[in-house]
Design goal:
This protein is an alpha/beta fold. Helices cover 40% and strands 31% of the residues. It contains three helices and six strands. The strands form two sheets. It has a four-stranded mixed β-sheet, with helices on one face. Strand 1 and strand 2 form a beta hairpin. The longest helix has 16 residues. The radius of gyration is 12 Å and the shape is globular. The relative contact order is 0.19.
């Protein structure tokens, strides 16, 4: 199943991205990011193994990170077991390839 799920773990809010997450889920991801940043001072974005994330979703994550920094909040990404997602993010300048 593709998309996102927002949960609470301790003091952090966790947004899990799974399956193919692209422009079709952009609105859902945007709303989840905003809600996650509102509910907690720390938002963890987990990329499930095998997930495929397109550039629009990466841009939303980047915008959420900038918004969080201005608000004194934290956004961190974890997971990303899919090597192609890491390569795409590195190619777009979001991180370094592993």
């Amino acid at each position: 199943m593709a998309g996102c799920a927002l949960t609470k773990e301790g003091t952090a809010t966790v947004l899990e991205l799974r399956g193919t997450v692209d422009v079709a889920q952009g609105g859902e991801v945007r709303e989840a990011l905003l809600r996650g940043l509102t509910e907690s001072s720390r938002l963890e974005i987990r990329i499930a193994d095998g997930a495929q994330i397109d550039l629009q979703i990466m841009q939303l994550v980047c915008a959420a990170h900038r918004h969080a920094r201005r608000a004194g909040r934290t956004v961190e990404m974890t997971g990303g077991g899919n090597h192609s997602v890491r390569e795409e993010m590195a190619g777009a300048g979001f991180c370094t390839a592993a």
